[in-house]
Amino acid sequence: MARWQPDARERLRQAALELFAEQGFAATTVPAITARAGLTTRTFFRHFADKREVLFADESAIPAFAEQLMADAPTTGEPLAMLLAGLRTVAETHFEGRKAALRQRRAIVASDPGLRERDLHKRAALAEVVREGFRARGLEPARAALLAETSVTLMYVSVTEWLDADDDRRLYEIIETALETLRAELRP
Amino acid sequence: MARWQPDARERLRQAALELFAEQGFAATTVPAITARAGLTTRTFFRHFADKREVLFADESAIPAFAEQLMADAPTTGEPLAMLLAGLRTVAETHFEGRKAALRQRRAIVASDPGLRERDLHKRAALAEVVREGFRARGLEPARAALLAETSVTLMYVSVTEWLDADDDRRLYEIIETALETLRAELRP
DNA sequence: CCGACCATGACACGCCATGTCATCACCGCT
DNA sequence: AGCGGTGATGACATGGCGTGTCATGGTCGG
Question: From B150, which residue of chain A is nearest by alpha-carbon distance?
Answer without folding.
Answer: A150
